[in-house]
Amino acid sequence: MMRIVQKHQPSNNNIVLLIFYFGTWPQYIQIYNETCRQNSDILDIVFISDIPPFENASQNISFIDISFDQLKKKIEKL
Question: Which of 18, 61, 63, 67 qualifies as a cystine partner to 53, CB 3.0-4.6 A?
Fold first, then answer.
C-alpha cells in the first residue's frame, strides 16, 4: 500500500523532483537536505521510498512510503 508519510505545504514552485530511493539513507543525506532547504523557493522534492523519513527534513520535501515490490507491481499494471 502506498501512503504519504510526510507532506510539505503546497507551493508555487516550478520544479518538482521525484526521487525513487530504496535501501538506507546515505551518510550525506543531511547535506542534501540542507541543499534542498536553501532551494525551497524554486524546488519541491518527493522521495518515493520504503525508508522512514530522515530527521529534520526541509519543508519542501515530501515522502511517499511504498516498497520496491509494490511499486514494481503498480508499474507492471500500466
Answer: 63
